[in-house]
Amino acid sequence: MHKMNSKNKTFIDKLRSSGLRPTNQRVEISKFLFNRKKTFHFTVEELKNSMNLKRSKKISTATFYNTVHALKSAGHLKEFSLENNTSYYDTNIKSHHHFFDNGKVIDIKSDKITFHKLPDAPKGKKIKNVEVVIRLENNN
Amino acid sequence: MHKMNSKNKTFIDKLRSSGLRPTNQRVEISKFLFNRKKTFHFTVEELKNSMNLKRSKKISTATFYNTVHALKSAGHLKEFSLENNTSYYDTNIKSHHHFFDNGKVIDIKSDKITFHKLPDAPKGKKIKNVEVVIRLENNN
DNA sequence: ACATACTTTAGAATAATTATAAAGTAGTTA
DNA sequence: TAACTACTTTATAATTATTCTAAAGTATGT
């Protein structure tokens, strides 16, 4: 039997709206992801490690993957890729852009980049979204 | 003993400037990649399959990976990632952008996209490049 | 409290990539 | 050109990220 406070509600709603029953594991993952002020960038492996380090009873890899995927499909997480064959996720789902600096990711607010010219979508297609990556290197 | 025509020279130079001895395998890969009019997008697996299909003596996976990596490091290929954990390479190394349409990649010439506003690089950093991805979906 | 469908989990399976080390080849030098 | 050495190729094993499987556990409606 669970005591539910209003804070948990958010996390549970995110799960429910992703078609997931709010099990203990999922609620903890959801809390871990969304109970923070700043945007959080992570890989599933990183998420698993940082959560499981603190826990006596570990959450399984499959559960991390399942939960992250469902949250992403429901639009609660954004997915993106770097050049190292792992998927990164971002708790900031608002349209925005990224700096990439040697594997480190920094968000760029959407309004920091505006376009003067954009191409039309090919026939029969329309633009779903536009994503800008600004790669950085050290000065001098 | 090899007969070398002027056409091969280009491919061999690309290898040499990548720090690679122009072995038969590498020259054939280099030709396959660069002896074409249109930009070529590929994964290493695709490259391997399309080249090896035609050959009686197959080139090994490791050689494809090694060669592609060296060419990429030397700047003869551009690497990019989609959300499926495989690296894509592009023989068009000029700064340009991409449409992504369900895993299919279409080049966008650099001058088709111009910016009205771009953020400054963080302190101590400078912008190496700016890459735009326009994701497409079907109309209606 | 029951039943049932959904979950969790450990471990196997898969896919992309990288590492290993033995056999082969290019480039240099005598 | 013969010989040498360093670089290559290759098959195969290893690794990494991810997905699948099927048995045991749990949430939810009645």
CATH class category name of the largest domain in chain A: Mainly Alpha
From the N-terminal CA to the C-terminal CA of chain A, the straight-line distance is 61 Å
As laid out across the biggest beta sheet of chain A, the strand order is: 1-3-2
CATH superfamily of the largest domain in chain A: Winged helix-like DNA-binding domain superfamily/Winged helix DNA-binding domain
Number of strands of chain A: 7
Oligomer: homodimer
CATH architectural designation of the largest domain in chain A:
Orthogonal Bundle
Low-confidence stretches of chain A: 1-7
Q: Indicate the mean pLDDT of chain A.
A: 89
Features:
homodimer, 140 residues, alpha+beta, Arc Repressor Mutant, subunit A, 2 domains, three-stranded antiparallel sheet, three-stranded mixed sheet, 4 helices, 29% strand, globular, disordered N terminus, DNA-binding
Plain-language structure description:
2 copies of one chain form a homodimer. By secondary structure, the first copy, chain A, is an alpha+beta fold. Chain A folds into 2 domains: 6-89, Arc Repressor Mutant, subunit A (Orthogonal Bundle), CATH 1.10.10.10; 94-135, no CATH class. Helices cover 32% and strands 29% of the residues of chain A. Chain A has a 3-stranded antiparallel beta sheet. A 3-stranded mixed beta sheet of chain A has the order 5-4-7, with no helix packed on it. In chain A, strand 4 (96-101) and strand 5 form a beta hairpin. The longest helix of chain A is centred in the middle third of the chain and has 13 residues, at 61-73. Chain A starts with 5 loop residues before the first helix and ends with a strand. Strand 6 (114-117) of chain A pairs antiparallel with strand 6 of chain B, so a sheet runs across the interface. Chain A binds a DNA duplex (30 and 30 nucleotides) through helix 2 and helix 4.
